[in-house]
Amino acid sequence: MTWDADHFWTLSVRGYLYDKNHAFFPLLPFLISSVRSGFAFIMPSGSEQTVESCTLISCLVLGNLAFVLSAVFLYKLASVRFTSGVD
Fold first, then answer.
1. φ, ψ for residue 26 (rounded to 5)?
2. Is the predicted pLDDT of residue 87 greater than 50, yes or no?
3. Where does 2-47 have alpha helices with state H?
4. Is residue 87 part of a domain?
5. In a domain, 69, yes or no
6. CA angle at residue 80 from 77 to 81, to 5 degrees?
7. Of 11, 17, 42, 72, whose CB neighbour count within 10 A is largest?
8. According to the model, what pLDDT value does residue 47 have?
């Protein structure tokens, strides 16, 4: 895991424990914990490994969703910018 990913992982599981954690914007850890709560209903609960699995799945889902949305946005932006008549 890279340095930022480890911090976001810790923030989504444990929250803001130290002063150095306040350097990270709270939206991504909030989204990760929200999606993790949704996956917790699907997976059997009770173990620490279930929490880690749900966190990993929610990170993958959010990362892929952000990629797809940014690719769609970039495509629409490029289609508007480069199809405006080149005569």
1. -80, 0
2. no
3. 3-14, 27-42
4. no
5. yes
6. 85
7. 11
8. 64
Is the Cβ–Cβ distance between 16 and 33 less than 8 Å? Answer: no
CA dihedral for 55, 56, 58, 62, sign (positive or negative): positive
Is 44 among the domain residues?
yes
Both tokens of residue 69?
Answer: 């949305």
Report the domain count for the chain: 1
pLDDT digits (tens, 9 = 90+) for 8-60: 777 777 777 776 666 677 777 888 888 888 877 777 666 666 777 888 888 88
Distance separating alpha carbons of residues 70 and 75, to the nearest angstrom: 8
- 63 by DSSP, 3-state: which? helix
Both structure tokens of 60: 């993958």
Closest among 43, 74, 78 to 58, alpha carbons compared: 43
pTM over 0.85? The answer is no
With tokens 């990760």, the residue in question is 32
86 assigned to some structural domain: no
What letter represents residue 61's amino acid? Answer: V
